[in-house]
Every structure is written in structure tokens, then in C-alpha cells.
Amino acid sequence: MTMQFALLPWRPELVFTGTSVMGINPTTGKFISHVDYWDSIKDNNYFSVEALGDLLKQLQYFKTPDLETPKYRVLKRAKIYEVRDYEPFIVVESQGDRFTGSKGFKNVTNYIFGENSTGEKIRMTTPVITSTVDSISSTSGVSIQIVLPLKSSLSSLPAPSPGTATLRELPGSFVAAIKFSGEATEELVKDKEVLLRSALVADGLCPKPGFMLARYNDPGRTWSWIRRNEVLVMLEEFDLK
Prior knowledge:
This protein is an alpha+beta fold.
């Protein structure tokens, strides 16, 4: 169940996943009971303090720019993470030197600002993604990615200038995400990755190696406490049971 909390000016989206158990009178065929079991809490009693805290947590303000972003559907929202089913999307990417470094960022931004085979300027999207195939401390397999407009195709996009960047289509996938605000320092990002992986394993899910950091805001124009950052880990599989 997804809804917008219209009583607040930023209209936060509330997401609840879980199981509904309905009781039926066998004689009349009418419903006589209805109990919801949320994936994000353990105390599912009618007056649950834990449920109230879970609701209030979702009211936090994260500044998300009004820009195009990859499409996904939330399949499960647990206590600290959510599992998403992402549709395919295309990125322009360049090699980075370290996870929190800036090498490669200019290459991908230059591409969308018109330094490409046709001189075409490409509209901004969000987020900017830093991806690694290994760990945050690795200096290999790190890339900086910018999401390209969703209606684009590899055949319709201009080619990057030689030696600067490449275009790649990321396939649809199941991804676990943990959202947080603040300055996305290397230490904080690593802590979030460890927390996410531990929670996934505890819930019987199988995370793949490597992870991504998605940053939705311009750090020079957005207060750190309202920035939307996410650590994302791809899953081997996910089955709604």
C-alpha cells in the first residue's frame, strides 16, 4: 500500500508492505476480522507504539529534485531497507579512482552538457551513482554514472567523446536500498553498506558483491540534513512469499 501524507507540505510518500489476514464467517460469507502484518515491525497489535514510530520515520523530509529518475516498484519495506524492482535504464559512465573521489565526474557531466558526437545537450536527471564491483576501499572497478532520460535508447543517444565515457544499459533487477541524509562520507557509506548487508542476510536474502551510492542532490545547494542519499545492493533473487 502506497499513499501520500497530504497534511505535510512536502507530501511524503508512505509505503507499507506485508500480509493481510481476513476472517470470514462460513455461514454468512461476510468478513468478521481483518489483521495487517507489516514487514517493517514486529508488534502488529492495533495500538502499536512501534507502528507509530515506523509511520513517523517515513515523514522525514528528503529533498528529492523534480527530475526524471529510474522507475521502480517497492516490493518489500522492512525496518531499515526496502526491496525494489527496477526497470532497465541507461547510464553514461566513466572510471573513478576511489569511491568517494571525483575522478570521472567531469567526463560524464561534460557528456550531458554537449561534449559528445553531435553536440547535443541532454536534460538533467537524478541520481548520480557511484558504483563498485568490490568494496568501498577498492581502487578498481569504481565508476561514476549519470542516469540518462528514460525514453532514450543506445541507438538514439550521441556517442561520448573518445576516451572519456561509455554508454551502458543496466538491466532490470531486484535491488535493496537503505536511505539516509547527511554528508555521504566514506565512513558513513561503509557503515550503511554493512548495516544493509547484515539485515538482508538476517532476513534470508542473498546480496550480490559490490554496491552503489546514489546521490540525488547538488551538495553545493542542499543542506546536508535534507539530502537524499541511498546505498543500494543488488540481490541474487527475490520472491514475494
